[in-house]
Amino acid sequence: MKGDRVEVVVDAGGGVRVYQVEATRAGRRVEVTTGRGLVEVTEVTRGGTAVRTARFLSNRMLALVEHPARERILPDDEQPSPPPPI
Hints:
Largest sheet: 3 strands, antiparallel
Number of strands: 6
Shape: extended
Number of domains: 1
Structural class: mainly beta
Strand order of the largest sheet: 2-1-6
Distance between the termini: 37 Å
Protein backbone atom coordinates (compact mmCIF):
# COMPACT_ATOMS: atom_id res chain seq x y z
CA MET A 1 0.00 0.00 0.00
CA LYS A 2 1.34 3.44 -0.85
CA GLY A 3 3.03 4.86 2.22
CA ASP A 4 4.42 1.56 3.50
CA ARG A 5 7.98 2.18 4.58
CA VAL A 6 10.86 0.13 5.98
CA GLU A 7 13.89 1.68 7.70
CA VAL A 8 17.11 -0.31 8.02
CA VAL A 9 19.95 0.79 10.32
CA VAL A 10 23.31 -0.72 9.35
CA ASP A 11 26.70 -0.69 11.07
CA ALA A 12 29.09 0.98 8.60
CA GLY A 13 32.34 0.50 10.51
CA GLY A 14 32.96 4.01 11.87
CA GLY A 15 29.26 4.84 12.30
CA VAL A 16 25.78 3.87 11.25
CA ARG A 17 23.85 4.37 8.02
CA VAL A 18 20.06 4.51 7.69
CA TYR A 19 18.34 3.26 4.54
CA GLN A 20 14.64 3.61 3.69
CA VAL A 21 12.56 1.69 1.16
CA GLU A 22 9.10 3.12 0.56
CA ALA A 23 6.10 2.09 -1.55
CA THR A 24 5.99 5.10 -3.87
CA ARG A 25 2.78 4.49 -5.84
CA ALA A 26 -0.73 3.26 -5.15
CA GLY A 27 -1.01 -0.52 -5.16
CA ARG A 28 2.62 -1.14 -4.30
CA ARG A 29 3.81 -2.66 -1.05
CA VAL A 30 7.11 -3.35 0.71
CA GLU A 31 8.09 -6.93 1.55
CA VAL A 32 10.89 -8.12 3.83
CA THR A 33 12.47 -11.56 3.41
CA THR A 34 15.30 -13.15 5.39
CA GLY A 35 17.48 -16.14 4.82
CA ARG A 36 21.09 -17.36 4.99
CA GLY A 37 22.44 -14.23 6.62
CA LEU A 38 20.81 -11.87 4.14
CA VAL A 39 17.83 -9.53 4.57
CA GLU A 40 16.07 -8.34 1.42
CA VAL A 41 13.65 -5.39 1.34
CA THR A 42 11.65 -5.16 -1.91
CA GLU A 43 9.07 -2.73 -3.29
CA VAL A 44 6.53 -4.91 -5.14
CA THR A 45 3.68 -4.09 -7.56
CA ARG A 46 0.17 -5.55 -7.34
CA GLY A 47 1.16 -8.26 -9.80
CA GLY A 48 4.19 -9.29 -7.75
CA THR A 49 6.89 -7.70 -9.91
CA ALA A 50 9.83 -6.34 -7.93
CA VAL A 51 10.45 -2.63 -8.61
CA ARG A 52 13.37 -1.98 -6.23
CA THR A 53 15.35 -4.30 -4.02
CA ALA A 54 17.82 -3.57 -1.22
CA ARG A 55 19.94 -6.35 0.30
CA PHE A 56 21.71 -6.19 3.66
CA LEU A 57 23.94 -8.60 5.57
CA SER A 58 22.05 -9.54 8.72
CA ASN A 59 25.17 -9.54 10.92
CA ARG A 60 25.71 -5.81 10.04
CA MET A 61 22.10 -4.76 10.71
CA LEU A 62 21.35 -2.99 13.97
CA ALA A 63 17.61 -2.44 13.42
CA LEU A 64 14.82 -3.01 10.93
CA VAL A 65 11.67 -0.96 11.49
CA GLU A 66 8.49 -1.43 9.47
CA HIS A 67 6.14 1.55 9.20
CA PRO A 68 2.76 0.47 7.80
CA ALA A 69 0.77 3.00 5.80
CA ARG A 70 -1.90 4.83 7.74
CA GLU A 71 -5.43 3.74 7.07
CA ARG A 72 -7.82 6.56 6.41
CA ILE A 73 -10.86 6.57 8.68
CA LEU A 74 -13.90 7.61 6.71
CA PRO A 75 -16.85 9.37 8.41
CA ASP A 76 -19.17 6.39 7.89
CA ASP A 77 -16.67 3.82 9.28
CA GLU A 78 -17.63 2.20 12.55
CA GLN A 79 -15.37 2.88 15.50
CA PRO A 80 -14.26 -0.32 17.27
CA SER A 81 -16.17 -0.93 20.45
CA PRO A 82 -14.18 -1.34 23.70
CA PRO A 83 -13.85 -4.90 25.07
CA PRO A 84 -16.47 -5.94 27.64
CA PRO A 85 -15.43 -5.71 31.31
CA ILE A 86 -14.25 -8.94 32.93
